[in-house]
Queue: 2 jobs
Job 1
Amino acid sequence: MKSVKDHLMFLLPLLAILISVEFVIVFNRVTQNSEEKLRQSYSILVVSEKVMSPKDFRRIDSHIVSATPIDKKTIAKEIARGMQNAADAEILASLPHFYNLHLDRYLSRPEVEKIRQKLLAAPGIKKVETFGESLRAKYNLFLFLKVIFWSFVGLMSLVSLFLVVKQMEVWQLAHRERMQIMEIFGAPMLLRSGVLFRMGIIDALLATLLVVGLFMVLRYYYAPISGIEILIDRQELLYETRDGVILAAIALGIVVVTVFSVAIRSREERE
Amino acid sequence: MANVITASKLTLAYDGGRKEIIKNASFSVRKGEFVFITGPSGSGKSTLLKALYGALKPKTGTLSVGGLDMGRISRSKLLELRTHLGIVFQDYKLINEWTVEKNVVLPLIIAGYGLDIQQTQAKKLLRHVKLTEQAERFPLELSGGEQQRVGVARALSKNPFLILADEPTGNLDEFSSNVIWDLMENACDQLGSTVVVVTHRIPTIFNIPYRHFIIENRGIYEVR
């Protein structure tokens, strides 16, 4: 019973850390996905007196990944519809060139402004329009949620890490006599701390399996019925195979670091 | 014959050097010798033993064990030296969660010996200390005398070049005491180990030649 309690005292904070880490991974994936969608729906409209190629735009700013010319005929037709005598060809000839620019990622307002100024300074470009203020509000909400989420997860992980170290110290105290005897007979630190490593590694693997199990349940059973569009469309956002590897590495890393820190602090002090 | 232990103007102290236990002591022990160290309680017998296995650094002077300067020895070298020592404690210092057999082969486990060698050596030693039947039991299930015999068997398991024993027969019955002295004599006489025993009382019947040091008034003097 005591042994189960000892393991739980280590397992629970480790679980909290791993769940936090997995939530961060999932949250990042979801926000990246949303950012990508924002990026795709976001564009800059450029009016230029001369014909420009995507290469020309990229030379102005490297964030510009594509430049799609807007068909002038459609615009000319729209203008001509209101005029009785105007010929399409005349209007077409007098129209400048319109381009729709796409960026490599969703940029902040100052960054977009910088690009706008660069474009305006380029020869031939008469006007630059940026759109997406409604998208920006959405994006800012994302950023705000991210900060809140990271703060919460960071604090929770810190407290959990503290509990993990404390429990490791309890284990070390419980096995201190054995470790001291082994040290007297010349056992190196790795061998002396073997029992701590064994207990820690078992709990680390158990915690990883539990978290992986939880997120697989979320992916395969919760996501399809969640009613959240992004999760229904892309269930893999909730769990990918490499997440398990990351979680196992983090859990084992925590075990190794805490065992070493406790073992170093408890080694024999020669008077 | 080469010296296994050499002490020159050795001062040992506790409390950051304030409380001197042994002062300016010089002595040496050659390979294969059997040495008894006696003295009144609190005279510093166990302190000297601690210094010999490196748990206490000399305050001044030098102490060399197996050719290594115990004042300057690195932690890794010290751990390596200890794997070649056999140490017996008055309070046994057995690992209570381990069986008798596993306790006996602790030095072999540390040295990385295979399971078959461990088992062979454990069987042989447990036969010598007359505890064959207790191999699978745990230390706390044994009497004090039996536990100390396990401790001695452990000390001998890797044929150490130096055996250090702190009151090995302290409060033991006559049978256990005799078994332990026989083993110590044998280790010295047959295996060539150097043996240093700290004790209140030298056994009345002892079958091999020995030297006798006494610790008194912070000094170490040879009386035989």
Note: Chain A has a mean pLDDT of 85.
Job 2
Amino acid sequence: MTRAPVAGRVPWMLVLPAGVGMVFLVLPLAGLLVRAPWPTLAERLAEPQVLEALRLSLVTATLATALCLLFGVPLAWLLARVAFPGRRLVRALVTVPLVLPPVVGGVALLLVLGRRGLVGEWLDTTFGITLPFTTAGVVIAETFVAMPFLVISVEGALRAADLRFEEAAATLGASRWTIFRRVTLPLIAPGVVAGAVLCWARALGEFGATITFAGNFPGQTQTMPLAVYLALETEPEAAIVLSLVLLAVSVVILASLRDRWVNTP
Amino acid sequence: MTLHAHLVVERPGFRLDIDLDVPSGEVLALLGPNGAGKSTALRALAGLTGLSGGRFTLDGDPLHTLAAERRPIGMVFQDYLLFPHLSALDNVAFGPRCHGVSKREARRTAASWLERVGLAAYAAAKPRQLSGGQAQRVALARALAVRPRLLLLDEPLAALDAHTRLDIRSRLRRHLDEFDGATVLVTHDPLDAMVLADRLVVIENGAIVQHGTPAEVARRPRTDYVARLVGLNLYRGTASGHQVKVEGILFTVAEQLDGPAFVAFSPQAVALYRTRPNGTPRNLWQAGIEGVERHGDNVRIHLQGPITASADVTTAAVAELDLTPGRQVWASVKATETHAYPA
């Protein structure tokens, strides 16, 4: 939709701060590009430690997204479609990790799932499963931090979806499970995909909860953001290269969201 | 197959309380103004709105206790609600699939239904590629493909343009003739109701105000709403013999009756005069012209006076008699053109 512009000059009172804001957002990214060691870029990217961190990041972020979908979509459905007592409270609690400092999340996870934790001790003695400081721990930390993004996105899509399609399905003999599977889910697919992409990006960038709960072991729990932070102290150029990779991934995600999911009705 | 229903739905400031009986093979139209509760009644039959009271049975089996998906119904919604992500074929196959039919069998059933509504060529089309009329036919096929015993149609023609409507109305009539279960149709269009329904039930403010065959209802309207729908002037008065007194005007009518009575006549039966006519002393009253509007080939004059009335006159008469708003005229109706019946 295009609108006829309001007549008159664009006020500098708005243009000036807008410009400053834009520069502030773009300049650091430009700095990253300017200072990047372009000649040795390919070489540095091929270093086993970098590849290892990249692989670990992609695998854990994807697994975390899968877990978020598995549990988050039903949770969003419950919040959007079933009126149960305490629904508002549950919705508030679900979104807590969104505003919680990730480090606090990591500490909380450690208290519950750590070796001496409420659930962790039981897991350890009964099944011999230990989660902290393992790759599984990374996935859990990322899932914890990223799930609210998925739940909020999917719940929004569910609330915006036309309920009458579900009614039409019911008159055709569809059970609620069939309605969810064959009508609701396809109708909100764009919202689910957008949520999953946001969720994946959040998991990929996860730092605080991961380093607290899963530690920083190369090849096991050292994801890209952790590798960037570590490299910055010892080998700043490597940190720039790793950052560039994360920047590239973010840009690709943003572009894909924009073209396919954000602008389509 | 017979539907016996007593529906009570209560909401703040609104109460629907109606009885419906629909034998199998019959089409019942629920007619009424917006907000009268006709769609609510249909949703209650479908199980999409809960009943506050009452009950209903189909062939003696209680239906109101079943969840919507367990009821042997088919429903066509006002804007069809075809699933946008499924092809026309899969939309129609959706119902049979939900009833446990295999995918192949469901698709075969769906294909045959699409053929019956004349849309075999559009099986692969997505709903957004279909015209309004085609979407309506797919929606009908989808509702019938589950072999319902009760068919519910919510304003099935309202979303169509005038030309398509004519075609779809006659097609729908044919499909309804072939359908052997009971059909309840909701509409606010009297023509749809007249063409499609065997019986009409008129609902106003959640209650039934009139019911009967389309011909009966059209001939003997009992409320102002129905009279407007069928295009008649309607008055309530007191009859004695061949005369009915309405607001001080004495109507001479063909029928003989006593007590509270309705008098109805068509706007075309009203004759207008600039001066008091000689020789027609009966059924005469003086009125002021309140409005003038085009009505088909004629002009409709809205009259104010002891009674409000509509009169249809030719364009020539408007010029000749100078029928402009504010002017006083004499109006009369021939006794043979009135119709009186007990109130």
Note: Chain B has a mean pLDDT of 91.
